[in-house]
Amino acid sequence: MKKRTGKGYIINTAVIAVIIVAFAFIKSAFGGNEQFRLIIVPSLWQCCYLIILAASLNLILGFLGQLSLGHCGFMAIGAYAAALISLAFQRAGVFTEKAGPAFVLVLIGCILAAGILAALVGLLVGIPALRLKGDYLAIITLGFGMIIVNIINNIPFAGQEGLSLGSASASLYKNGLGFGTASKVTYLWVALIVTLICLTMMFMFIRSKYGRAIKAIRDDEIAASASGINTSYYKIFTFTFSAFFAGIAGALYACANATLSTSSFAFTNGGILNSTFIVVMVVLGGMGSLTGSVVSAIVMFFVNYQIKNGLWVKSLPGFLGGIFAYPMLVYAIILIAVIMFRPRGIFGTYEFSLLNFVRDIKEHRAKKALQKAGNKEAKSND
Amino acid sequence: MTESKKPVLETRNLGITFGGLKAVQDFNIQIFEGELVGLIGPNGAGKTTVFNMLTGVYLPTVGSVILNGEVLNGKKPHQVVSSGVARTFQNIRLFKQMSVIDNVKAAITKDIKYGMVDAMFRTPKFWKVEHELTEKAMDLLSIFKLEGKADQLAANLPYGQQRKLEITRALATDMRLLLLDEPAAGMNPTETAELLECINAIRDRFGISILLIEHDMSLVMNICERIQVIDYGLTIASGLPEEIAKDPKVIAAYLGE
To answer: Is pLDDT at A120 greater than 70 in this prediction?
Structure first.
């Protein structure tokens, strides 16, 4: 069993290396392509923070088994923290252009700081909120998410006008770490590596004593505490840990967007950044499967992209076109369909890995071979 | 026989009320090292309530629970476990979506000496501890011959083995006192006999004390050294199995007058 895990680590490291090399190659090959710069790169940025967001919410929803609807609140904190800190650094003159080692350092520092700040708020929210369970927890986290957004809204140097284009203070786009088209291409590697590191950290977390403890809490909280697991500690810890990644996702969001506006994190927002949208991603991918979250984040991004920009959607006749004018309606239909036809999501609790995949194919073949042999025997008996 | 020894567990006038209902009153019990005590009574007598008070699920209204001289009142369930009391449940409560071995490993909370950093970077310390955990868990699983099913989901085990896994999980907590809540419920006579053997084997191997709730009288009369009977929250008899079997109050409680 130990050997198998060792093999798994080698394969995963190899796969990550291949991904990075492949992206480096693609970037050098298509760097000048208009479509690549204007559509594919921004899409990849969006996918990166959606993946982190979905996977981190899955820690709470799928592995800890608690319903939290305030995840976007933590993301908002991360986004604003990263943006404001980078602006402060720029005013202090640490960097002037979006280039050079000083800027990269600030960028990484901002991403980390965003995560840590979101985690701190997560801890503060988690301590009182996690005393509740089920629907009550959902309501209180929903409330906290809205409160966070409203507080940010009322901070004079951040709020409604603070970081948007044309407002009194300089916009993110030109200053701080808001990236334009060119820098998005240049710093795509940052988004990719941050996403990979976050995913790795979450996998390590799940496959350790922490993962065992929170899955035990999900399956049976009473039995977990009767087995010596300190349930409140692990719940708060996981909530904080998850908020940390939401903060990092927020920082990437701040990088990928010219302006920050609190309305994009609000619960009533019909766009992609809405706590329910992330819940749909987690449920679709499978509660309890990180690889499922990765896949469904990409799928849901694609669905959202098609609804917003797909030409075929605009050519749909009357009623159908009407539905697609309200993306929230489409997400709701997807959620209902998933719960009706595949309640455990695409992946269930299955984690995709090459080793598992090969093993399953082998098992499947062995089963088939056995069946064939059985059929033959039955025939010869006739 | 063990009067000179100090009891492992002692309760003093333990009682709990839910609103106006006195669920358990004046519950006194002493369990000595290595002893197997049975707790019986008709349905609704308050047996499981006693368990819940002993394990910190309920806070007793009056009285105290003393384990090896340490007062357990007011401790949370997981703290009670780390003081050395583990339990099983009347209706099986396993971690169903986890593998059999993870069920056991999750309950070994005492020996884990690695933190977040070790887990994130997979340090040698992490591997060493995890390896030890796996070995210990496999060792425990072999008591009930479950080692062959280590990688299965707990939910997929047959009923009898789920019971056994629950007991194994309780053993994994390194306890000194094991509380078994109707371990033979829903088992056929063969399975019950097998369970009886296993309980004896556990006692011999770990030298622990056991408090057992059970309805199966053959099991209770066979293995318990002492029996305490409660009815409507009150202790109505306690003593050796033979005495209990003849006690008119006990017969009245079970069969009516």
So the answer is: yes
- List, in sequence order, the alpha helices (H) in B41-158: 47-54, 77-83, 100-107, 116-121, 124-143
- The whole-number pLDDT of residue A1 equals 42
pLDDT at A160 over 70: no
Which residues have C-beta within 8 Å of that of residue B157, sequence separation ≥ 6? B100, B149, B165
Identify the residue whose tokens are 């965003």: A114
Q: Is A177 left (phi over 0), alpha (psi -120 to 50) or beta?
A: alpha
Say yes or no for a CB contact (<8 Å) between B57 and A222: yes
Written as one string, the DSSP assignment of A120-188 is HHHHHHHHHHTTS-HHHHHHHHHHHHHHHHHHHHHSTTTTTTTTSTTSSSPPTTTSTT---HHHHHHTH
Cβ–Cβ < 8 Å for A42, A184:
yes
Query: Smallest Cβ distance to B81: which of A208, A209, A228?
Result: A228
Instruction: Give the B window 75-104 contacts with A, CB below 8 Å.
Output: 76-78, 81-82, 86-87, 89, 93-98, 102-103
Q: How far is CA A40 from each of CA A31, A161, A297, B151, rounded to the nearest angstrom?
A: 11, 30, 16, 42
pLDDT bracket for residue A351 (50, 70, 90) = confident
The pair phi, psi for residue B18, each rounded to 5°, is -110, 105
**Domain range B1-31+42-83+227-257, CATH class:** alpha beta
Cα A168 versus chain centre, distance: 32
ipTM attached to this prediction: 0.91
B122 torsion bin: left (phi>0), alpha (psi -120 to 50), beta (else) = left
Locate B92 and state its tokens: 């099986």
Residue B66 dihedral angles phi and psi, to the nearest 5°:
-125, 120
> What is the DSSP code string of B141-184?
HHHTT-GGGTTSBGGGS-HHHHHHHHHHHHHTT--SEEEEESTT
Distance between CA atoms of A98 and B60, rounded to whole angstroms? 65
Q: How far is CA A18 from CA A11, A12, A55, in A?
A: 10, 10, 22
